[in-house]
Design brief:
single chain, 2 domains, 2 strands, two-stranded antiparallel sheet, Arc Repressor Mutant, subunit A, mainly alpha, 6 helices
C-alpha cells in the first residue's frame, strides 16, 4: 500500500458515498447524500474530493461547469489494502494474531461466535476441495 492509498476518516466518508452512489457523482451529489443536513460545506467536500484525485483514487472529468468523479479502486480493493497494511504494521503480518485480538477484545454473543466458526469452516472447506 502506498502512502496515497491511505485514507483519512473524512476521505473514507467521501469514498463510501461515491461507491454507494455508483457511476460518476458530482460534488453536489456527494454532499446531498453524505451530509443532507449541511454538516459539511460544499467547498470542504470539493477539497476532499480533489485531494482524492491527487492521491489517484478518484478521476475527475469536467462536463460543462461540473466535475464528475469516478473511483479508481473498488471499496473491496481499498478495504483489502487497508487491512493488509494494518495486518503488516500492527500484527507483524500474522492473521491469527489479528483474529485473536479481535475475538478477545470484543464481547461476542454465542450467535456471533457461531457465525465466525461457520466462516472459518467454509474457508477450510474451500481450501480442502
Amino acid at each position: 500500500m502506498s502512502i496515497t492509498d491511505k485514507l483519512t476518516p473524512a476521505e473514507w466518508e467521501i469514498m463510501e458515498t461515491v461507491w454507494q452512489l455508483g457511476g460518476s457523482p458530482s460534488v453536489r451529489d456527494v454532499l446531498a447524500k453524505a451530509y443532507p443536513d449541511s454538516e459539511k460545506a460544499y467547498t470542504t467536500v470539493q477539497t476532499i474530493m480533489n485531494t482524492l484525485v491527487k492521491k489517484g483514487l478518484l478521476i475527475s472529468q469536467k462536463t460543462g461547469l461540473v466535475n464528475f468523479y469516478t473511483p479508481v479502486k473498488s471499496r473491496n480493493d481499498m478495504v483489502q489494502s487497508e487491512l493488509k497494511n494494518m495486518l503488516s504494521r500492527v500484527f507483524n503480518g500474522s492473521a491469527p494474531a489479528m483474529a485473536n485480538y479481535l475475538i478477545d477484545s470484543q464481547d461476542l454473543s454465542l450467535e456471533e461466535i457461531q457465525k465466525i466458526k461457520d466462516l472459518l469452516n467454509k474457508k477450510a472447506q474451500q481450501l480442502e476441495g
